Amino acid sequence: MTTGTPGPGNIGRIEPRRIDDELRQSYLAYAMSVIVSRALPDVRDGLKPVQRRILYAMEELAMRPGTAYKKSARLVGEVLGKYHPHGDSSVYEAQVRMSQDFTLRYPMVDGQGNFGSIDNDPPAAMRYTEARLAAIATEMLVDLDRNTVDFAANFDESLQEPTVLPAKLPFLLANGASGIAVGMATNIPPHNLRELCDAIDHLVDNPDATLKDMMRFIKGPDFPTGGLIMAGEGSNRIREAYGTDEDERPTGRILMRGRAEIEPFGKNEDRYQIIITEIPYQLNKATMVEKIAQLARDKKIEGITDVRDESDRQGLRVVVELRAHTDPVYVLSNLYEQTPLQMAYNMNMLALVDGQPQVLTVRDILHHYIQFRIEVTTRRAQYDLDKAQERDHILEGLLKAIDNLDAVIALIRASDDAEAARNGLMTEFDLTQVQAQAILDMQLRRLTALDNQRLLDEHAELVITIAELEALLADPLKVRAVVKEDNAALRKKYGDKRRTEIVEEEARRLTRDELIAHADMVVTLSMNGYAKRTSLDTYKLQHRGGKGVLGMRTTKDDDVIQHTLVADTKDTILLFTDLGRVYSFKCYHINEDTSRTTRGTPIRVLIPTLPENEKITSIVALSDLRQGGFLVLATERGEIKRVPLERFAAIRSNGIIAMNLDNDDRLISARAAKDGDEIIVVTRNGMSVCFPVEQLRVRSRTAGGVRAIRLKVGDYAISMDVVDSEGSLLAVSVNGFGKLTRMDKFRRQARGGSGVIAFRVDEKTGPLAATLVVEGSEELVIATAKAQVHRTRLSEVGVQGRYARGVWVMHPAGGDYITSVAILTPSVGDTPEAATPPKSASAGKPGGKAGKAAKAGKAEAPDEETSESGQGQLVMDIEEAAVGAEDLGAEDDELPEDVEEEPED
Questions:
Q1: Over the stretch 28-46, which tens digit does the pLDDT of each residue have?
Q2: Cα→Cα distances 779→12, 552, 622, 796, 810, Å
Q3: Which residues are identified as catalytic?
Q4: Measured distance CA(567)–CA(599) in Å, rounded
Q5: How far apart are CA 820 and CA 827, in angstroms?
Q6: Distance in angstroms (rounded) separating the CA atoms of residues 124 and 114
Q7: 678 near 709, Cβ under 8 Å?
């Protein structure tokens, strides 16, 4: 039995009911309340009611980006008192989650204070923390005041709140969702916004696109904590988890792994440590560390001596130290198998569609989102049209009033009251009630001060606006185009790189090669064929003009460092020989030398098939040989060509042909380039030519080249590089002189001419050793024939004109000379989408023409002003200073240069 519905006529009335019927009805009512009002997100804006109310309350409290933070307690009270009739803990917990960058891929709340940690530490009480909207959260609220969504009464019908937010951001897939309702649950993973925007564009243009089509753009989940997804061959595991077009049940499992790298440590090379830098999504780091320690104590994983959590503000870092002679690959494989470092994410893509829970595919969610954005765009346009028409209607009345201003004023003054004046205006001047009221609402001084021309201009603009909005509303294709424009703006502003790497293989025991740590390395190659890999940190930063530190101990007097390159350990190293062949290996295949003074590994250990008569003349480091673009190759005789980079993706162990050469020519340089780039070629005697890469037809890998520059007798090309229009040309001579010259000082020419002067070569400078195109903010690594390595900032090298000879950048010792230079850029070690790889350059013929020139005349030792560090800076003689000052202010056309000639293949 149960009491009846409370009311004046039902007081004291008892209605008998079967208990099973009452329980069924009450439970279903409770279940639907939880499903609709608390646990499941709306497919349109991707938000649960509490999240939506928090964002709306923050907007109402003006807690926008750039404003002062407000106490979380203030926000929680606002939400509870106006919109959310539940406990304060539920609201604050939701706010905390929306501010955690390890929980949401794109946090909605910009928090200040302790909002918890990845170790599951509790947040501070709401009276201590502060918050405001994150910048990307404003995209959820944009156009809310333009009638884009419906509003409904709050719980006590005293206020209105939005039933859904306009949501320019596809929140449901971008940030995912998790929630437990009654009898059902949802678990949607976060995704990359850039990939989502690309998929939305495709679905807008192709409404019949399938889930398989969407998977071309959406590679898989992108978790805020990074890590790896073991996707199987061809990403089959991800496709299975997302469901299929035939069986739309996206309730599969995705296998996640933390990112771990193996590093040697200690004095002995037989000890290793495993560095964990990224963990699976929603994993408690402290729990993982405790689990590893427990397994080590219980001897379930042998060889672990210590587990330390070294995480700080810079990022996550868990160190697992191993006992000597312990196989780190074996230990790591066991960590994946026995700890949460490898775990499954169980997907269940459940959301509310028209208030009803439905299991959806990615395509379904995007389809509903696009339909919602079309509705928002249409309502926004209709709102703008209504406002424009209302304003234009009033303007028409004001224009009539101005044309009859005296009569209007007289009529108003003669009227007994406002009603009589309004009726008189409507009758006398054929005005509507709205127009007449607008005139009456204006003060007399404002009415008389109205500018007729300004009103006419505004009227004309409104007529155009109204026509555009009417055309938009009449054409569904135009509405879809506006949706795409909004989507493109969102992608440009907030799109970022994927954090979670998708590995297209099954989960298995990993090989040691796959676990090599990313690190910046200085790779050197000597003329006698010794390759060496040393950590960049080994070389301390010095001031320009320093002596350098020993980079390799050469046991033979005739051996010199020929090439220097800064690369990541996982980069592919391409080695080009003087005979036009190319070989390759991974950077980590070179044994790392902890000492600067060791000779390194013989190149023929790395490339056993390298013939004795071939010499390495150029090396290039690339992170991805299939990233698109080209390789541009140049020869000593000034020949050049470009080849698609992908042609070098599969290089046999015995090498392949990179360029077909004449018998008396040799390959000197290879660079990665793309369409739109420009190329500069520089000779030993300081001449240069700069031209667009499009002047080079794309040729096959085995083809020869065309003429890049016409050479004088005795001169030969020493370097070729890709131009940065906002960068500078770094030129370094064999005797240690160097300078930077802005690239805009080199006018673009047709290839094949004699070129213009790039560096003034004289007896003091010696011939050029190398040139490179740089930005100017990088660091410079210089190597000499006697294995001295010098590292300095490019900002300490002066910017001068083309005809100057520069300043001292390094002082080679007596009988020594510079053989190569390399540039360390800020992006080294990253994996950019299409970045230029770390660059190096060397003298045209180390130990040959350039080397003999340097040995023949010892560089004159300059006077120095010694600094506290002992490095000092050159005080140039009066003549040199005058030349430099004149050059800085001179225009290029005032300097002597050779006449260009017509290009010739």
A1: 777 777 777 778 999 999 9
A2: 88, 20, 19, 10, 14
A3: 128
A4: 19
A5: 21
A6: 5
A7: no
